[in-house]
Design a protein that fits this description.
Elements lengths: L1 E2 L6 H9 L8 E5 L6 H11 L3 E5 L5 H11 L4 E2 L12 H9 L6 E10 L6 H15 L18 E4 H6 L10 H11 L3 E13 L5 H4 L5 H15 L7 E4 L3 H12 L5 E3 L14 E4 L5 H13 L8 E3 L1
Parallel strand pairs: 1-2, 2-3, 5-7, 8-9, 8-10, 10-11
Antiparallel strand pairs: 4-6, 5-6
Helix pairs in contact: 7-9, 9-10
């Protein structure tokens, strides 16, 4: 658990770990140069519970802190937790029971629920619904280029498996999204519990709100970079389908990577039929009725999602 200036929430986060029904855990807490009372609060807890191991960050930022925490950890299993969130009481027990005796390349996740002292925005509630829906339908990999499909503090894995693929040290920001790409690249299998395993706190000073490492531009830069590395086939013409903010950011990043592409607007969809075996990036995500029409059209063309086209 990396933490920095989390004094408003960190007591509650640690309490939710301390009261887990599974008690053979260790908490590796890395203080990332806090300037508030977070360090003193964690130190107080660590004096009363030997399972809480506190360290000062050797580097700077979440990636360095995660790398250090992984090196210090001594367990068979590993999970990440954020210092402003809450673990439901049965989370560790449920996840460990689900992962136990599974192959090393299995990741366990669960459902999420936003919590806040203020009304939660429609955008976050929409994302909560979306991430839970794709989790229950095991659609994490088919939606990998749309959004981060697994919440960063809501998974459990074998420590050996994480170390074998390089741990956290080679990740780029946004590191939670990049870790998902790393699992995808190495063909990890995602299994989802049907229980809520993360109470995800929404608040104005949340890192994803205030840091440029987590804005839309940074997300698109990463997703286009990983698309080129993992799924891009230079022998096929690449087409951006749609217009607007997503299409423009995608085009900018493809140009920066030196990748040739064409851009067709939605009303020009029949131009796709003139392309020779195209690969499509769809830069829109309309309502379900419109998506059904798009996907029926692609089916008539005998194309398949993840082989011939992706949603951005």
């Amino acid at each position: 658990m990396p933490f920095k200036n989390s004094s408003a929430y960190i007591r509650e986060a640690i309490h939710s770990i301390s009261t887990q029904t599974y008690d053979r855990w260790e908490l590796i807490a890395i203080d990332d140069h806090s300037t508030d009372h977070s360090l003193e609060l964690v130190r107080e807890h660590s004096k009363n519970d030997f399972r809480i191991r506190l360290f000062s960050a050797r580097g700077n930022g979440i990636i360095d802190a995660l790398t250090q925490a992984l090196e210090e950890s001594r367990g068979i299993f590993i999970t990440r937790f954020d210092s402003d969130d809450i673990m439901p009481q049965h989370r560790l027990k449920l996840m460990i029971n689900a992962l136990y005796q599974q192959p090393e390349n299995v990741i366990i996740t669960g459902l999420v629920k936003y919590i806040s002292s203020e009304p939660i925005s429609k955008g976050y509630l929409k994302y909560e619904t979306w991430i839970n829906k794709i989790a229950l339908n095991n659609k994490q990999w088919t939606n990998i280029y749309r959004e981060c499909t697994i919440a960063s503090p809501n998974w459990l894995a074998y420590k050996n498996a994480i170390e074998k693929i390089g741990g956290f040290k080679n990740l780029e920001y946004p590191e939670d999204y990049d870790l998902i790409f790393l699992w995808y690249k190495h063909h990890f299998i995602i299994k989802t519990l049907t229980s809520i395993t993360l109470h995800w706190r929404e608040h104005p000073s949340r890192t994803s709100r205030i840091s440029s490492n987590y804005n839309q531009q940074t997300f698109f830069k990463l997703k286009i970079k990983r698309f080129i590395e993992i799924d891009y086939d230079p022998s096929r013409p690449l087409v951006i389908w749609g217009k607007g903010i997503k299409a423009n950011i995608a085009k900018t990043n493809l140009k920066a990577q030196g990748v040739p592409f064409k851009n067709h607007e939605l009303h020009e969809y029949k131009k796709i039929e003139l392309e020779n075996n195209p690969f499509l990036l769809i830069a829109i995500y309309p309502d379900q009725e419109e998506r059904n029409k798009i996907e029926s059209y692609f089916k008539r063309l005998e194309t398949t999602m993840t082989i011939d086209w992706w949603y951005l």
